[in-house]
Amino acid sequence: MHDRHKGWSALFAEKSATLSNYFLRRVSHRWDAQDLVQEVYLRLLRIEPSDAANIRNPEAYLFTVAANLVKEHAVMRQQLPLGSDGLEEVLEQWSTPCEAAAGVDRELRRQRLGTLIKKLSPKCRAVLVMHYRDELSYREIAEKLAISPNMVKKYIVKGLAACRQRMADYE
Amino acid sequence: MNKPGNFETRRRARRITEQAAAWYLEQQDNPSQRQQAAFLTWLRASPAHVAEYLAIAQMHGDMKAAAAIDTMSMMELAEQVRRETPVVAFPRVMPQAPDNKQAAGSRRYTVWRFAAAAALIVLGLFGAWRLWNPAEGAVQQRYATGQGDVREVNLPDGSLVHLAQNSVIDVHFDALARRIDVVRGNALFDVGKDPKRPMFVGVGGHVLQDIGTVFDVQRGADGDTLTVISGRVRVWKASDVWIGKIRAYVGDSQTSSDAVADLVAGQELRLSAAGTTGSIRAATIAKATEWMPTDIRFQHETIGQVARRFNAYTTTPLVIEDPQLAGLRISGVFHADNPESFVAYLATFPGVSVVRDRDRVRIVAASEVGRTAHR
User: Fold this and answer.
1) Which end of chain B has fewer CB atoms within 10 angstroms, the N or the C?
2) Which residues from chain B sit within 8 angstroms of residue A143, using beta carbons?
């Protein structure tokens, strides 16, 4: 089961754009996304303390719960053939009919995000670009900017948060 | 979604977003079981946490593509950061900036600094060195190494500092000067050239002024040792250097009589904590650099960078004058105590010549040698 969590977690990271497209497209839709979060949250709350200790990878657990809920939801609405399994298929089902639109959304989102990055403070911008575009480690960035690796991490967090907040303004 | 009017709500939302981003990065760094438990607790604390975490995960998928849109080079980005870094707030001792209408920007700052320096003379505050101490918040960056840890630090001015284990240096650069304090341990400096901003290295009661140099500083309970590997270093008493700087501002040039000592390549000097110095003696470079790695390993580094790493070990530094060769990327391992093998390797490149001067080894394009000879 643990391996499967891991697999889903990786898949989620890779396909998260598609997953979110699923959420967004179904907004009347926003209700669904919020319902989903509520439901994920309730399931997290229902974990017994004794079981909580056994969850070695909460992130994978979270993604798995989310994927399962998406699937259950779809089944309930009879929009997905019964018996399908796993996040991949869920995503496959939901992204295929509208692949072209999904591509446009993604492109637009990336353009916006790119513009936001350029508007960040010089430090946040530098660490984000060096980390994501140039794939430098915290340490390598630290040396280039003459700050500590810890500060690099802090600036990445700050930069990501600023981007996320401003992206939310678009929603 | 975000009501601009509600500042408190926005602030709280921002904090959750930052926590989510921090947890997301933490997940990529092999979190410990304890961190994982804390993460689960955080998730369970609020549905807003769950929502935000999923949102960050989703945005993260777009980051690489979005960052790739930025066309600024890494150098430009770093330069922008450097320019943004606030200069050392020396004028703290000044009551007010002189009102000088034509002085704008950096010029105004120069005036401030001069006035501040002058004020220091008047007040007789020759312990000015202290004003720049970490306690005053003037430190821009501290680098430290732990037990068994040898580290190379590339500074934005092009200086390369090797740190031995258990060493600490404080680096502060501003528009007018570069300063590094060796707080503890052992550091070897290969100072980048910047004629506009002299480099001063603080060692207890002394200040070293670099004149295009590689040198080693070793701090110890029974005194400090300075070893010059190549180039020249001028040693000042900590308080004197300020007099010298102030004179320079006034237009009076520093005279060597103010300096405690001048050292050249291959020389060594003992410095006591009280600010006195021993006599200059011949150094054993191998001994001074014995803490340095015995191998020079490099992967996909430019020949110019690799040459500089060798220069930490030799009194006759390598200077790569052929820009094309200097920019070439190579990978390999050399014995650090044998720069000759690296020179021999460089000589194998087509169109490259080795010129041996008294105090350095120049690697030049062969065509350059020909041209010089014909002239």
Assistant:
1) C
2) 153-154
One domain, residues B274 and B304: no
Q: Which of B258, B288, B318 is the last residue of a domain?
A: B288
Cβ-Cβ contacts under 8 Å between A and B: the total is: 177
Hey, where are the domains in chain A?
2-98, 120-170
Q: How far apart are CA B171 and CA B205, in angstroms?
A: 17
Q: Does B273 lie in the same domain as B167?
A: yes
* Parent domain of B54: 7-67
Mark yes or no for CB contact B62/A109 under 8 Å: yes
- Quote the percentage of chain B above a pLDDT of 90: 7
Candidate from A14-28, A106-120, B17-31, B120-134 with smallest mean pLDDT: B120-134
For the stretch B29-72, pLDDT in tens is 888 888 888 999 899 888 888 888 888 887 888 899 999 999 99
SS3 B133: coil
Q: For residue B275, what pLDDT band results from cuts at 50, 70 and 90?
A: low
Q: What is the 3-state secondary structure (H, E, C) of B241-282?
A: HHHHHHHHHHCCCCCHHHCCEEEECCEEEEECCCCCECCCEE
**Furthest-apart CA atoms within chain A: distance in Å:** 57
Q: Among B22, B40, B67, where does a domain finish?
A: B67
Q: What is the CA radius of gyration of chain A?
A: 19
**Test the A interface: residue of B58, B82, B179 with most A CBs within 10 Å:** B58
CB contact under 8 A, A157 and B44: no
Which pTM value belongs to this model? 0.42
Output the pLDDT for position A14: 54
Q: Selecting from 2.10.260, 1.10.10, 1.25.40, 3.30.1380, what CATH number does the domain A120-170 have?
A: 1.10.10
